[in-house]
Amino acid sequence: DAKTTQPPSMDCAEGRAANLPCNHSTISGNEYVYWYRQIHSQGPQYIIHGLKNNETNEMASLIITEDRKSSTLILPHATLRDTAVYYCIVRGHNDMRFGAGTRLTVKP
Amino acid sequence: KAGVTQTPRYLIKTRGQQVTLSCSPISGHRSVSWYQQTPGQGLQFLFEYFSETQRNKGNFPGRFSGRQFSNSRSEMNVSTLELGDSALYLCASSLSQGKLYTEAFFGQGTRLTVV
Questions:
Q1: Three state DSSP letters for A24-88
Q2: Averaged pLDDT, groups of 10, chain B, 115 residues long
Q3: B88/A94 CB distance under 8 A
Q4: Given an 8 Å threshold on Cβ–Cβ distance, is A94 in contact with B55?
Q5: DSSP 8-state assignment for residue B85
Q6: Kindly report the CA angle at B74 between B72 and B76, in degrees rounded to 5?
Q7: Phi/psi at B85 (nearest 5 deg)?
Q8: Which residues 6+ apart lie within 8 Å of B62 measured at CB?
Q9: Contact status of B42 with chain A (Cβ, < 8 Å)
Q10: Residues of A with CB under 8 A from a CB of B
């Protein structure tokens, strides 16, 4: 079973920041938080991951709370091509347990 | 660097038949995982192979099986197909050389339709 809770859907205006929350209150000390996204019927695409420090790469930023019970994925300047389902995953092994994810719709 | 390649992309089979799907991981990646995605159940983990050995297995019946070859290519097989096996089957590869937390890269999937 997935160990994360995400809102089922969110909207964001094009050019604005998209902030996608994720709750993972039962996360263990050695488990990482991973984010993937899936654009219609394609394979999921890796975005970013982190353990306890905030992380940033060319795609997004990941903010993890100090108690590690929740995190936020930030897409700084959302474009129409960022419309997708975003999955937050708590991962301790190579078997990733996906939840239902958040369907992000970026609107012009 | 070539990505994860899954073949075929689309497949139509009849109930009761069996099917074999293929996955070629990214060069150098030794871990291959398989997932089933359906509208009702979402993305579900099937199994993971590393160095030709199954390391993890999800909650699927024995009709679903897999194997990995010495070149890390993997196949999964579904026997006695049922209508409910219609799904997008995804393969993911990762380095996983003793490290648990390397990112996994997914292929485009094989869409199986059982009629």
A1: CCCCCCCCEEEEEEECCCCCCEEEEEECCCCEECCCCEEEECCCCCEEEEEECCCCHHHCEEEEE
A2: 91 98 95 92 90 90 97 97 97 74 87 98
A3: no
A4: yes
A5: G
A6: 165
A7: -80, -5
A8: none
A9: yes
A10: 32, 34, 36, 41-46, 49, 51, 87, 91-101
